Amino acid sequence: MASHPLNLMLRFLLEIAAIAAVGIWGWKLGVSWDRFLWALLLPVFLMTVWGVFAVPEDPSRSGNAPVPVAGWLRMLLELGVFTSATWVLYDLGFLLSSMIFAGICLLHYITSYDRVIWLLKR
């Protein structure tokens, strides 16, 4: 189920939403010119971490792992990214959006139970 195109699209949309939320939070975090810096660097950092650290032969990704990591570590990284995005939305004052985002993330991982088990066994 984790490799189903709809589930992959959902995870991609969750990634994009997390990146956008962190960028907006970075903008709010800054005071003047550094707003641009935070709004750019935080999403770039998030995208780099997400794209570089991977489990080799992950069927839901390209299979490439620029920096191979254990499955439990990848799972922890993904949960960290989505939890951070949930918290960022809450901190920005979007309580309902943060709850919806967290719920959709939970739904994604429930429907991807086969991938979660695979990651935890790797």
TrEMBL record:
Superkingdom, taxonomy of origin: Bacteria
One Pfam family named in its UniProt record: DUF2568
Keyword Transmembrane helix: yes
Keywords: Membrane, Transmembrane, Transmembrane helix
Name of this protein: YrdB family protein
Stored InterPro entries: DUF2568 (IPR021214)
Annotated transmembrane regions: 12-30, 36-55, 94-113
